[in-house]
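TL;DR need structure tokens for one chain.
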Amino acid sequence: MAYDTWQKLTEFAKAWGKPDLVSFICAEAKVALSPAKTGPMALYRTVNYMPGPLQTQNYVRALCLGTGMPSDWIQRNVWLRMARQSLLYRDRTPQKFLVDEAALINWPGRFSEVVRPQLSYALQELHADSKEDNLLDFRVVPNAHATALPRTIYDDTFSLMCTDTETTGFVECLRQSIKGGNNGQQGDGEDWNQGDIELVGADMIPFLEHSWREIGNMALSRPDSMGLIQAKMREL
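>> reply
TL;DR here they are.
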């Protein structure tokens, strides 16, 4: 199944019945297709896993398997993730990543075999970008800082899609919704339309922007972050 335009990707998400995902893809598309490449930016902050634009197919599949997601939904997620990556790359989209150190190798048991290829792929992409476009700003938040964030900072995975005229925010959670469904407990695994990505209200944008700035102040530089990835690979 080929997705060669953002419109096709949006139509796929609509048919899947995921309204917040539609909003997310539309927001990514606005950044990717913006004629001004100095202001617009896609910001990805991840806590438990590598950010989507740098994930391999096997990594996406293992991530979904770890949640107990049905096989047909897993395949949809893999298709969608790879298509988004392709379009972000094609459209030369500026992207920034803040990734917790623990997320680099945060895989239990039988999924550990996907970690080294994933780190190798991310490192390869970052090296290639540093020689060409410098569109990818990848920085790692050391464990000592990531585990001691103040209460004034949002300490879970989120994204900000920033254009010259607006900023749209999203939070991500694999199994549960922060909107209050099921009293914050995990779902029963039957309804996968909610809980994976959620559009936040405009009143939460300043909080997420503040969190990004504060967490960014604690992160390593890009070269040091790439060096840490290499060190993690030697440990595996």
